[in-house]
Design a protein that fits this description.
mainly alpha; 2 domains; 14 helices; MetI-like fold; two-stranded antiparallel sheet
Length: about 270
C-alpha cells in the first residue's frame, strides 16, 4: 500500500491547507501595510486625538488586565480544583463573553451599571457614575477579556494535576500557603500568557466599549474607536493607526508565546 507523502511527519495536504490559511490571515495585514502613506506616517499617528486615544487604550487595558487577574485567577482555581453541582453551567456562563457579540455585552453592562441599571442606580445615588466614563471602558474590556485568562489558567491547572499540592498539604502547609508557594508557581507561565492575551483582547475591544462607554475624546475614546471615526473622515490616518494597533498586538502575542515557553515549576522539579 502506497504511503502518503509527508513533510517532517505531517501529510503534505495538511501543509498545503495550513499555507492557504496562513495566507488568508496574513494577506489583509500586507494590504494594510501597502496602503500606509509612509511619508506622512508619523504626522498621521501623532495628532493630539490619536496620542490621547493610544494612551487611554494602554491605561485602560492595563487596568482591565489587573482586574482579570484579580477575579480570573480565583475563578480558574475553583473551576479546576473543586467539584460542585452546576459546575458545567457556571463554566459556560463565565466563558460566555467569548461567544457573545461585544455589543450585546455592552448592552448587558449598560443595564447593569447604567444610571437606570440594576446596580447603576445605587452607584448614581452615591455620586459614582459609571456608564460613559473611563471606568466603563475598563469594565467593558474586563468583561470581554477575562475568559482568555480563565481558559489558559484552568487548562494549565488541570494538566499540572494536584500531586505537588497534596505533598505540600501532607507536610502541614495551609491552603493559602499551598496556593502561593506551590499552585501559582506551578502554572505561572500559563498565568502570564493568559494575562498578556487578556491585555491584547482589552486593547482591541470596540463593541462593548462603544455601547457602554461611548466615544468621548480623552475619556472613553480608545484607539479602536479613534480608528473607526477616522475611517470616515481621514482614511489615511485610520490605516496608519491600524498599523500601530497591529504592531502592538503582534508584540503582545509574541510575549504571550514566549511566556508559555518558560519552564514550569513542575518541569524544574522533575529535572
Amino acid at each position: 500500500m502506497k504511503r502518503t507523502a509527508t513533510l517532517a511527519g505531517v501529510p503534505r495536504w495538511v501543509a498545503v491547507i495550513a499555507l492557504a490559511g496562513a495566507i488568508f490571515i496574513l494577506l489583509p495585514l500586507v494590504a494594510v501595510i501597502n496602503r500606509v502613506d509612509w511619508p506622512q506616517f508619523i504626522p498621521l499617528i501623532s495628532s493630539e486625538s490619536s496620542v490621547a486615544a493610544l494612551l487611554l487604550s494602554l491605561r485602560t487595558a492595563v487596568a482591565s488586565t489587573v482586574l482579570c487577574i484579580v477575579f480570573g485567577v480565583p475563578i480558574a482555581i475553583v473551576l479546576a480544583r473543586t467539584t460542585f453541582a452546576g459546575q458545567r453551567f457556571v463554566r459556560s456562563l463565565v466563558l460566555l463573553p467569548l461567544v457573545l457579540p461585544p455589543v450585546v455585552g455592552g448592552i448587558a453592562l449598560l443595564y447593569t451599571f447604567g444610571r437606570r441599571g440594576l446596580l447603576g442606580q445605587t452607584f448614581d445615588v452615591l455620586g459614582i457614575p459609571i456608564a460613559f466614563s473611563t471606568t466603563a471602558v475598563v469594565l467593558a474590556q474586563t468583561f470581554v477579556a477575562i475568559p482568555f485568562l480563565i481558559l489558559s489558567l484552568e487548562g494549565a491547572l488541570r494538566t499540572a494535576g494536584t500531586r505537588y499540592e497534596a505533598v505540600a498539604a501532607t507536610l502541614g502547609a495551609r491552603p493559602t500557603t499551598v496556593l502561593f508557594r506551590v499552585t501559582i508557581p506551578l502554572v505561572l507561565p500559563a498565568l502570564i500568557s493568559g494575562a498578556i492575551l487578556s491585555f491584547a483582547r482589552a486593547l482591541g475591544e470596540f463593541g462593548a466599549t462603544l455601547t457602554f462607554a461611548g466615544s468621548l475624546q480623552g475619556v472613553t475614546r480608545t484607539l479602536p474607536l479613534e480608528i473607526y471615526l477616522r475611517l470616515e473622515t481621514n482614511p489615511d490616518a485610520a490605516v496608519a493607526l491600524s498599523l500601530v494597533l497591529v504592531a502592538v498586538a503582534v508584540f503582545v502575542v509574541g510575549l504571550a508565546y514566549r511566556a508559555s515557553a518558560v519552564p514550569t515549576a513542575r518541569a524544574r522539579v522533575a529535572s
